[in-house]
């Protein structure tokens, strides 16, 4: 089978690999679509980061570079291993792409398995990936999804779950006013969850194309240009002088972080969603004097079932966020290059490893 393999910084190759081997308790999936994530771009430009460097195998997967990339993916079950009796061949599925130690409690009541020692991701630390034609995954991480949801949209369940968990962490509720800093994929999908819950959403974003996408997709009530408008004053105007109840930092940009701190009301909640590659300057005095609640969030934890229900029920329409579809051979030139150098023109670019659907 064909797979996109990450060898080192700036080095991705399309390789021919043996098909993965099914084992007891696993599910074989024909990958339909895989999204390109910002994490993949960071690995390509600055890595290895999550990916284990050559000669330094990951302590759970036992693998090191090269690895198959891709952790945002959907597909169709082609085989089930011994002991798997609740999934059938032909079912549509999405993957919760964790690599977690077997002795960690990942049951339905767990709220912290995603924070367990040595946690990593399928498609970043081994065990195959969504940028290969086939993958074999432990049953625990395979989530059926109704066939009424197109498989291309289903590939966005994983990043949507990131937004869902961030909103959970914020405590946002219907009637609140939220300010989202950055209208990239995660910012837009976080806004989609907020709108589905009945929250009023403003997005601050420099790119006119992304601001328009936020409005056209219906995930933002207000799209603010921080180069033109005083975002803090505009938020206060929209909230009767109060300020935002919750804010989401989705850009890893210092100026955005500063603006969110200013625009929050006293006792507001600031959730940092983006991955920062450097230390931020933080106004601790403002945090103290406004009693701001600062919260981090990473990935998701038991989020996929609720997110899948939101999509299946039509609460969230993922179709507006798919802005490109490519084959495996175009991964770097058409996919990575666009998202690195012309990212304002794209939200989510999907890859079909087999070429089907293009």
TrEMBL record:
Keywords: Metal-binding, Oxidoreductase, Zinc. The keyword Signal does not apply. GO terms for molecular function: oxidoreductase activity; zinc ion binding. Signal peptide: none annotated. Its cofactor is Zn(2+). The keyword Oxidoreductase applies. InterPro entries: ADH-like_C, ADH-like_N, ADH_Zn_CS, ER, GroES-like_sf, NAD(P)-bd_dom_sf. Belongs to the zinc-containing alcohol dehydrogenase family. This is 2,3-butanediol dehydrogenase.
């Amino acid at each position: 089978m064909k797979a996109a393999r990450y060898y080192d910084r700036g080095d991705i190759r399309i390789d021919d690999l043996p098909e993965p081997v099914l084992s007891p308790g696993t599910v074989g999936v024909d990958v339909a679509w895989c999204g390109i994530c910002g994490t993949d771009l960071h690995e390509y430009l600055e890595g290895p980061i999550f990916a284990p460097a050559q000669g330094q195998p990951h302590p759970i997967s036992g693998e090191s570079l090269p690895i198959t990339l891709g952790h945002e993916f959907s597909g169709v079950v082609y085989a089930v291993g011994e002991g798997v009796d609740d999934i059938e061949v032909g079912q549509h599925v999405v993957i919760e792409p964790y690599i977690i130690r077997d002795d960690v409690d990942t049951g339905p009541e767990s709220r912290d398995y995603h924070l367990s020692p040595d946690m990593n991701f399928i498609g970043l630390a081994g065990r195959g990936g969504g940028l290969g034609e086939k993958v074999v995954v432990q049953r625990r991480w395979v989530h059926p999804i109704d066939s009424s949801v197109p498989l291309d949209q289903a590939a966005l369940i994983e990043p949507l779950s990131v937004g869902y968990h961030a909103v959970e962490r914020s405590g946002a509720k219907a009637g609140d006013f939220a300010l989202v800093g950055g209208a990239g994929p995660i910012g837009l999908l976080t806004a989609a969850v907020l709108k589905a819950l009945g929250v009023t959403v403003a997005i601050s974003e420099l790119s006119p194309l992304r601001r328009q996408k936020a409005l056209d997709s219906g995930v933002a009530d207000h799209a603010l240009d921080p180069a033109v408008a005083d975002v803090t004053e505009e938020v206060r105007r929209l909230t009767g002088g109060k300020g935002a109840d919750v804010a989401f930092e989705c850009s890893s940009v210092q100026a955005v972080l500063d603006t969110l701190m200013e625009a929050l009301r006293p006792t507001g909640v600031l959730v940092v969603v983006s991955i920062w590659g450097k230390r931020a300057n933080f106004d601790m005095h403002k945090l103290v004097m406004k009693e701001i609640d600062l919260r981090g969030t990473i990935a998701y934890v038991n989020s996929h079932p609720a997110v899948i229900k939101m999509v299946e029920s039509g609460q969230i329409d993922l179709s507006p966020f798919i802005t490109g579809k490519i084959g495996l051979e175009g991964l770097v030139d058409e996919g990575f290059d666009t998202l690195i150098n012309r990212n304002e023109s794209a939200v989510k670019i999907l890859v079909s490893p087999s070429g089907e659907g293009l």
